[in-house]
Design goal:
17 strands, about 25% strand, 5-stranded parallel β-sheet, 9 helices, single chain, alpha/beta, 6-stranded antiparallel β-barrel
Amino acid sequence: MNIKELEDKRIAVLLSGGVDSSVVLYELVRQGLQPDCFYIHIGPDEDEEWDCSSEEDVEMATAVAHKYGCKLEVIDCHQEYWNQVTAYTINKVREGFTPNPDVMCNRLIKFGAFDEKRGHDYDLIATGHYAMTEIDEEGRKWLCTSPDPVKDQTDFLAQIYDWQLRKALFPIGHYMKDEVRAIAEREHLVNAKRKDSQGICFLGKINYNDYIRRFLGENPGDVIELETGRKIGEHKGLWFHTIGQRKGLGFGEGPWFVIKKDVPQNILYVSHGYDPQDAYKQDFLIHDFHSLTLPLHTLFNGQTTKNVTFKIRHTPEYHPAVLEKVDEGKYMVHSAHPIHGVAPGQFCVVYDEKHHRCFGSGEIASSVE
């Protein structure tokens, strides 16, 4: 949207305390707009022993809002996060899958619970995501990739609803990360040199395994070398590991790589080699496909297959593939190259051939069914 289109819009800015969302506010204010600012609280309860950075985040967000003469309101979405996103995460890991809480946080909290509480009063919700949007000749809004392949966050947005996409505004999506940093330093923002947050959106300094252990405890089982069948140790619970994992395993004679999990037998299979054939997949099924803008099957133009690109984790690489419709919401991904670490439960995010427009995402199935 250009400035003329924004002038009559009511805009809410989600400030996280980080540099990206702070530059979002700067970008809007410098164009003569006066948005309202909100900080979404989704951290642990105040009596939790976990070390959370939310207090510092609020201080940073408050300082930036004050700098530009905007009010900041803290919106408590704590209960909604734990009831919805945590439930999704725990259910998936209990079943042996690899969930992505940040993907669901965008759908259920930042563009979901917030909209129910305050966002419904606004035409647009601006965030610091590295993503872009464009309007086609039919007036439809598409989610598009950022020019910064390392920071692009369309994969985290590929499960939002169409109505949420229509309200989404990404004012820094056309920038490279170093350009955003440069703007923050030039404008003397208080958090200009603050490090980017890592890991799950609310955890701060909380260890992910401690988060899982809190809800599921431990469930020890055998760790077996895939090639030999030799027991090399014990794991504390399959939910602490994911397919393709190669760090933090803690077994002797390493390095080891997680190849597969046998959930019914509670066995973790590992390999010395990072490149055993069983660690790769070239064809895999995705189900419950969530389309953005248009139903995915309508883009096939009457054909049974479609050339696309995809990614299964937050990396700069987009993989070419042929997508084949199997059933309603189910598609086979025929990758042009074998892909390492394809884990059931992960989201496979699908783009056009030039990885420009994001079509949506589906969950990787545990088998080809």
